[in-house]
Amino acid sequence: MPALALAPRTKTSRLSDLEVESIEMFINFLRLLGWPKSVGEIYGLLFVSAKPLAMDEIMARTGMSLGAASQGLKLLREFGAVRTVYVPGARKDHYVASGELSRFATSYLEEKLLPRLRTAQERIQRMEKMMQSLPEYDRQLPAERMDRLKYWLGKGQKVVPWLVKFLKL
Hints:
Elements: H1 17-32, H2 37-48, E1 53-54, H3 55-62, H4 66-78, E2 82-85, E3 94-97, H5 101-131, H6 136-167
Antiparallel strand pairs: 1-3, 2-3
Helix pairs in contact: 1-2, 2-4, 3-4, 5-6
């Protein structure tokens, strides 16, 4: 596959085949988690970069806007996926991908997924109470669906803490 430049909004440097593959892989993976494409672009580029990159370099290489780069780097820093490093003589912050992908995954699971599972459980309980006011014939199908949803929610609540523990090994 030939090297190509993403998003022709600004003058971009050509990306190597390795960079394109890495970016595409992380875009696809992070979209599963509901994260913006720009986060995958940033992480994918930094993941295979042999040297730390400043935000303006990331923007130039990917063609993304200042806002997208700034928000993406902030999110990635919060989850421990990237960190700033000192580059002698440079005034700008430079970023590298953390090699600790397990830290990235556990942060996401603990800070995003577990709270959503708890919220879903609370909503299900409220919905079940609301269903009680329905006539019996209107309650059967929603009740069956709620039971299936509770089953999968219960599985998730058991599996996610185990995953976090496993990833922290």
